[in-house]
Amino acid sequence: NISPSMKLWGVVIEVNQKDIIVSLPGGMRGFVRTEEVSDIALHGNSKDNEGSVCAEVVHVGQLVPCMVLQVDDDKKEGKAHKRVWLSLRLSRMYKGLSLDAIQDGMVLTAQVKSVEDHGYILYFG
């Protein structure tokens, strides 16, 4: 019952140069393309020589919030499987979130944008 725009928690099980494979509830697997890994890495200069940002942003075993972009039917060897495409970009996860909606005790995922002398600057998308 996975459909586009659903928000799920997943666990990173594999990190490649071109994508990330995420274990989803129900034994399903999702795929995250490099351009859907992070907002900050896409706009910053943190890409390595190969152009891969995947290994810099996540690691195997990490719990990540993700959003379903698309579900494709993938037919291999006569068996029908669903291929789930995901995004880890916070701008997609928190689209429409305003300061008025944030309450005490809420848990939000953020990326550290920079480390300062007095603390951190966090990016919420």
UniProtKB/TrEMBL annotation:
<feature type="domain" description="S1 motif">
    <location>
        <begin position="5"/>
        <end position="89"/>
    </location>
</feature>
<dbReference type="GO" id="GO:0006364">
    <property type="term" value="P:rRNA processing"/>
</dbReference>
<dbReference type="GO" id="GO:0032040">
    <property type="term" value="C:small-subunit processome"/>
</dbReference>
<dbReference type="GO" id="GO:0003723">
    <property type="term" value="F:RNA binding"/>
</dbReference>
<dbReference type="InterPro" id="IPR045209">
    <property type="entry name" value="Rrp5"/>
</dbReference>
<protein>
    <recommendedName>
        <fullName>S1 motif domain-containing protein</fullName>
    </recommendedName>
</protein>
<dbReference type="InterPro" id="IPR012340">
    <property type="entry name" value="NA-bd_OB-fold"/>
</dbReference>
<dbReference type="Pfam" id="PF00575">
    <property type="entry name" value="S1"/>
</dbReference>
<dbReference type="InterPro" id="IPR003029">
    <property type="entry name" value="S1_domain"/>
</dbReference>
